Amino acid sequence: MLKGLTQSTTPPIKVPLIAQALHQSEITRSKSFLNRGTYVRHDDMGEVKNIGSFTRVFIVWSSLVTNIEYVPGLLTLDYSLKKVKSKYPLVALYTDQLPLEARTAIAARGIPMQRIDFLAPKSGLEHSVEERFYFCWSKLMVFGLIEYERLVLLDSDMLVLQNMDELIEMELDPPKLAGTGHRVFAAGYACICNPLEKPHYPKDWSREHCPFSAQHTTPLVAQTTAPSTNEKLPNILNSGLLLINPCVSIFNHIIDFLRSDIKLKVNFAEQSLLSELFHGRWVPLPYTYNALKTLRWKGVHSEIWRDDCVKNIHYILTPKPWEEIDAEGRNFSNEPTHQWWVNLNVERWEMEKRRGIPRDFF
């Protein structure tokens, strides 16, 4: 097993260790390393099968978990990817803040794990008043995971409802462009309606200014096409899903910015930074790939929402679905979409019981 990796009980899969970018002056990509690897595939319920005698994973889904409260979300996210028969594995990225109990639960389910460094900016940046964003900065570490050819970062409070492997084929700038092109990464827009009227949100965040509002008259188009960019309106991404080609130059650019004395108001941590640093140079995705649950609400963007078209729902805000279930896994939430998560979570519990995997009680 490679140094620094967490051993899964079943089945074994080796994931390369991240280069410790913050402690090295430069990272280099090894062509020989890339040429001698193979891909992996899953069986019907996601068991990883090696193809050939040597396995490296170059294309993966990934999700960062830094505290035990999000582990139920991660476990059910992994199950949902396997249920829709994705060809690619989910790698659980974790920082040292994640307790051993949580790591053990993840490993027991055969989910590959990889440690990354905790990342935080200099104190000069004006942070959000919401503590939950403090741990989000570490998501930026994925830009430096050059072991992977392509990586899709998913938040742990997501649930995949339909296969979306086609994202892997989307055209992005190759690493040789070093972040100078106009397709540096792909993401979905943030909804800036502020339906809960949070006072610390920017004053220009309103339904009138939200990019999704422009699609209300063309809901069928919205299922497959992202809103058009309007330079007169805020163009803020939601980093719940990031499709990237890891790149040394892009990663170093991000780290240099975090270490700099540049003053920037970052209400929403890494997604504010990415929106500013790569303004006009990222690819917007249709809402269906990062379907913020609030879009479904009346008075937000119910005009474009179609349950049967959503590929990946994002349970933003609190409470999370796993925070509104009883000991038997029954749902007591008033949020209709939480039942979708509960249904799949119960399936996961039943499958794990048959396999003799201890129940998670986080």
UniProtKB/TrEMBL annotation:
It holds the Pfam family Glyco_transf_8. It comes from the Eukaryota. GO terms for molecular function: glycosyltransferase activity. InterPro entries: Glyco_trans_8, GNT1/Glycosyltrans_8, Nucleotide-diphossugar_trans. This is Galactinol synthase 1. It comes from Erysiphe neolycopersici.
